């Protein structure tokens, strides 16, 4: 069984620490409880868009990747219907680099028109490549729409249509960030060759002063039972 220490900071950030003496590395993961289910039907794809925007730079780290690579680390992220998660793996002696980078973008992500335009193009092209230009690429759009009629699971993580991301304004995006990417809507997990009594003060140092955001609420419409067989025939060139 995996053993860990759990604590909650005053700002609501939940922290899990696991000690593993079998590795010289440390993994840092920040999970935000926001996914495609938390989007509006006319503004889908925002959680996935933020998976990209979170690497566009923050107040004290204009480039996320450079300092991490200099510390011998790597990173990645992914989005689901229910959550978005970001992680770094790096030598344990450079743990604070990851804590600094994650805390800085939690506190002060730089959401500029330039960054939005760049990442918007990336996400729209990804939609076209995986859903429109790929044979059977839109199958999950059809399956989701058939499985769910009112619940937000009815659209895939990448969004219903690329137009929703394409038409997103800077105000739309900043509002989404301020609502969901807050310490009281996040779980920080640290695992590796670390000592809990040393790590927890570092977590307080880097994350403790970040203000809590509004209490997150997930307004999820209950899905009525489906009681009959459904079929759909799709024809495409």
Topology:
Layout: E1 5-8, E2 14-19, E3 25-32, H1 46-53, H2 65-70, E4 74-79, E5 84-91, H3 95-108, H4 113-132, H5 139-147, H6 162-166, H7 170-180, E6 186-192, H8 196-207
Parallel strand pairs: 2-6
Antiparallel strand pairs: 1-2, 3-5, 3-6, 4-5
Helix pairs in contact: 1-4, 3-8
Describe the structure.
The protein is of the alpha+beta class and 237 residues long. The protein has a single domain (5-207), classed as Metalloenzyme, LuxS/M16 peptidase-like (Cytochrome Bc1 Complex, Chain A, domain 1, 2-Layer Sandwich), CATH 3.30.830. Helix content is 36%, strand content 16%. It contains eight helices and six strands. It has helices spanning 46-53, 65-70, 95-108, 113-132, 139-147, 162-166, 170-180, 196-207; strands at 5-8, 14-19, 25-32, 74-79, 84-91, 186-192. Strands 1-2-6-3-5-4 form a six-stranded mixed beta sheet. β4 (74-79) and β5 form a beta hairpin. α1 packs across α4. The longest helix has 20 residues, at 113-132. It is globular and about 60 Å long. 33% of the residues are buried. The mean pLDDT is 95.
């Amino acid at each position: 069984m995996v053993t860990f220490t759990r604590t909650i900071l005053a700002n609501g950030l939940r922290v899990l620490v696991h000690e593993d003496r079998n590795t010289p590395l440390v993994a840092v993961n920040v999970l935000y409880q926001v996914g495609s289910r938390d989007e509006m039907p006319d503004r889908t794809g925002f959680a996935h868009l933020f998976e990209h925007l979170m690497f566009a730079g923050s107040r004290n780290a204009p480039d996320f990747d450079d300092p991490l690579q200099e510390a011998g680390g790597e990173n990645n992220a992914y989005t689901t219907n229910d959550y978005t998660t970001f992680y770094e793996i790096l030598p344990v002696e450079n743990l604070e680099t990851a804590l600094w980078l994650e805390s800085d973008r939690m506190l002060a992500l730089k959401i500029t028109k330039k960054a939005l335009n760049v990442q918007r193009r990336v996400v729209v092209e990804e939609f076209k490549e995986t859903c429109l230009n790929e044979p059977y690429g839109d199958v999950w759009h059809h399956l989701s729409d058939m499985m769910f009629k009112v619940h937000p699971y009815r659209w895939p993580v990448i969004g219903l249509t690329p137009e929703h991301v394409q038409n997103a304004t800077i105000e739309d995006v900043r509002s989404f960030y301020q609502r969901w990417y807050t310490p009281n809507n996040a779980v920080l997990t640290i695992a590796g060759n670390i000592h809990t009594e040393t790590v927890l003060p570092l977590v307080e140092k880097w994350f403790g002063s970040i203000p809590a955001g509004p209490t997150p609420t997930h307004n999820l419409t209950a899905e009525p039972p489906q009681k009959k067989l459904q079929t759909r025939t799709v024809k495409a060139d």
